[in-house]
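Same chain as my last thread, 319 residues:
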Amino acid sequence: MNIEDLLRETLSDMAHEEQPPPPGRFLHVNRSRPRRRSLALAAAAAVTVMAVGSTLVVQGLSSQAAVPKDFAEQGSGEALVETGQGQTALTVREGLRLSDILKQLSTATGKPVAEFRRASEDGRALGLPAYAKGALEGFAFPGTYEVSPTSSPGEVLAAMVTRFNRAAEDGNLVDGARRIGRTPMEIMIIASIVQAESTDKRDMPKIARVIYNRLNHTPEMKLQLDSPLLYGLNKYGISASFEDLKSRSRYNTYTRLGLPPGPICNPGDDAIEAALKPAAGRWLFFVETDPKKGVTKFAASESEFLKLKEEADKNRRAR
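reply #2:
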């Protein structure tokens, strides 16, 4: 059911509940309807959600502003665009950490980032799926959002979660995870790493395969990836330092086996699909051999990996 149908159903229900419900209604446990209704009410309070290509537009119910023609062409930038009537279109690109998204939303709405931070901690009100375990990181879906000063932090974040839930349903996330022997949360963790490590979406299925090959390797093999480690240290960059590697963080995939405890960013459709449908291959390594051109190459053995490292070092020296 899409959000428009959900809102319509909710409003219809409300219109027929002027009288107290019969006692028998409270004798049946219904776990799906209350959650759907609370999410609909959160969205209906001030926002309506429409899909525009691969983007999402969130605008006040009373707004008559037209959808900007270039919404589907804005890509993954972070530009703020005034759309009239106090509305601001904000494009949240794939791979941003939640802390950065909250800052952007604060700038777009003029509300303190602390208010968005508090709203982000109420997973039930936001409509997060049960497997998110109340944490918004990984589930603030990227897209273009139209916000206004009258939009509350909870309403904006609930709209982002609504968009994630729809994408998860469209992509059969839960069933897809089950088919490959993973939980939905593990898929989202893997997708977030794929998103953080990729410079070209065409490489995503291969990077996902490297992650799975390492997780399934016998004897057990550590992921040894910089992006989770840097996330755990609240640092940014493309390479961890020697001191970083000594961290006791649970996100240090150089010292700990398996996946980090949660997503490290908010991935988009391509990364989630790659996590669900990794490419076929025996690769255990990947190296961005030419950062300037965004070229990433893959290796199945340590000797091949060392050759790729030499190629990458050579290209860096030539810059």
